[in-house]
Design brief:
Two copies of one chain form a homodimer. Helix content of chain A is 46%, strand content 11%. Chain A has 112 residues and is mainly alpha-helical. Chain A has one domain (4-91): Winged helix-like DNA-binding domain superfamily/Winged helix DNA-binding domain (Arc Repressor Mutant, subunit A). The first copy, chain A, has a two-stranded antiparallel ribbon. The radius of gyration of chain A is 14 Å and the shape is globular. The two termini of chain A are 22 Å apart. Chain A binds chain B through residues 1-6, 8-15, 53, 73, 76-77, 79-80, 82-84, 86-88, 90-92, 95-98, and chain B through 1-6, 8-15, 53, 73, 76-77, 79-80, 82-84, 86-88, 90-92, 95-98.
Chain lengths: 112, 112
């Protein structure tokens, strides 16, 4: 991840990060989102986010499967996504606002 | 502009919006930024931002030339760009942070 632009300037990366904030963690959860991310793109973006230190792999269901979770660096994106959501809700009415899929699950991080 | 994702999820769009916040207004100003946006892409993104109501054309130099300026909707992106910049400065040290080109000219908008 060369710069913040590689993260913010990519539609699919933002959607994956949003899904993680919404509580999703497994590959199939991300593919189930209504935007329909292609699996090859999802694989690529997950790898980039891991190598960029934004997310990490984590065991699920007693270690039988694995998923992904936000690192501290990833959690620190909360204010960015919240600001995007606020803007979308205020200025892009009539369209699905970014981060506004089912329930607003994003809360500001407890630590700076 | 179908949704906020069309704005936030595109690298070049974010760069143009950043340039406007940095005080640039003319086509040639945007092409002079170090990221080197191709002129055909710049033309496309300016048109999209105008049609999306984020920027508007404005006369310059007594009406002989024209440039672009942020609308109220565009100015409302300030908090988003500030949050991106904060994250970049904190977590992507060693790379040029988004919005950190020469001088931090972005200030929060005076009106919500």
């Amino acid at each position: 991840m060369a710069s913040a632009l590689d993260l913010f300037g990519d539609r699919w990366t933002l959607l994956v990060v949003r899904d993680l904030f919404l509580g999703r963690s497994r590959f199939k959860d991300f593919t189930a989102s209504p935007e329909g991310i292609p699996t090859n793109i999802l694989t690529d973006r997950l790898e980039r986010l891991v190598s960029g230190g934004v997310i990490r792999k984590t065991p699920l269901e007693g270690g039988k499967r694995f998923g992904y979770e936000l690192t501290e660096k990833g959690e620190a994106l909360g204010p960015v996504l919240l600001a995007m959501r606020e803007w979308g809700l205020r200025w892009e009415e009539g369209t699905r606002a970014l981060l506004e899929e089912q329930a607003p699950a994003i809360t500001p991080p407890g630590q700076g």
